[in-house]
Amino acid sequence: MNVSDSERVATLLVADGFEITRNESAADVVLLNTCSVREKAEHKLFTRVGQINKSAADRTEKKPVLGILGCVAQLEGETLFGKSPAIDFVLGTKAVGRVSQAIDNAFAGEKYYTDLGERDEIYDWTVAEAQRNSPYIAFVPIIEGCNKFCTYCIVPFSRGREKSLPASEIVRHLLKLRGEGVKEVHLIGQNVNSYRPKTDDGLEAFRGATQFSRLLRAVAATGIERIKFTTSFPRDFHPDIVEAINEHENLCNWVHLPVQSGSNRILKLMRRGHTIENYLERIDKIKNSPRCISLTTDIIVGFPGETEGDFQATLDLAEYCKFNFAYYFKYSPRPGTPAFEMSDNVSSEEKTERFLRLDKLIRSHQQPVFRNYLNKTVDVLAEKVSEKNPNQISGHTTCQMVVNFEGAADLLGKIIKVKILESKANTLYGKIS
Ligand code: 5AD
Ligand code: SF4
Q1: What SS3 state is found at 228?
Q2: Which of 113, 311, 321, 339 has its CA 20 to 30 A from that of 23?
Q3: Three-class SS of residue 224?
Q4: Predicted structure pTM score
Q5: For residue 56, what is the enclosing H or E element?
Q6: Ligand 1 pocket check for 300: Cβ under 6 Å
Q7: Strand pairing partners for 138?
Q8: Which 8-state DSSP code applies to residue 119?
């Protein structure tokens, strides 16, 4: 979501006559888009502000205007100026559409400008994402915000309530992207499958029990070669999503379904709204799909009050699910969330020890996944020249595995058949078959 917001900000700025540079020492304006989901992410902001200040101090000409965007901006607002006086303005998650105005105010000499106001009612698709990180891959927000209020999570506070974008506009936007040569679209949102637009406009012709599965069928009909979606919320993961994937080749065979814990007691304390039993029902439906769907997840270890027994249940769940990939985090207390008030008797050492045990188990499940690819031929979108080896191209499979292969830049943007020969550190290596 942050990548998508940054693309949107860059697009708006270019439309207003600014020029984008990645060289911060040459920039007149430096914008930091921030994350507050864990404490570590939040600390990064102050590290970066320190670095920018240091490089600005060496300048002979005017110092750059420094603006803070994103979740930390939304949550901390004006208090950021007290923490770092080098910051010129603060622009919340809902105010990204007004970035030019914030910069103009700073140029005009206004000190400590803050905009945490509401989103503009109309999402302007005409400017969305023209400054994409990749010419071949587009992130398309379909739902913004979150209503779930999991007890550990700051997102509902930093991003506000769920708001689904109209299906007809999403479809129109995808058709435009297709015309521009985009090969892969990621439908994004905190919980994409909670997608509930106010009207069925654009979904009339598509069957399915949920508006999200109907949207999937509608976007599949645009003919974009690959459509991925993330993140899904277990409670709203209706079987008709898997049915849509089964029926449409261009809906990719990858589902990211965060479980967070394997213990029903902890899930209840997290207020996740799902149990292990109904999570596993969804997993079985996914695993029984003929499409061979890759399953990935998020897990938090060391939630307040997590016992060894609760953690063992998480290990058991991981053992059963054999995730193709997982993101796991030590619980990070976020001020303002209900869990922040819970007494936490899991020591930092225990959290680290559990994290390492989970890491070992999940890695052991990945080895057979990688081995399974050996000598198989997969479709890879040639996305970029590899950073480590200029003779190699890097891309993803339909199920989001990273693949590197020998090839020249004229292949970029094409979907290439690659025979897998080797695997190393989460990456597959192969040759054009
Ligand atoms: N501590 C640790 N991990 C967290 N996440 C969200 N909030 C926290 C927190 N307070 C994780 C969840 C979520 C992912 C995006 O970040 O696993 O799915
Ligand atoms: Fe956070 Fe829960 Fe919303 Fe995900 S569903 S963004 S974990 S509150």
Answers
A1: strand
A2: 113
A3: coil
A4: 0.95
A5: helix 39-57
A6: yes
A7: 185
A8: P
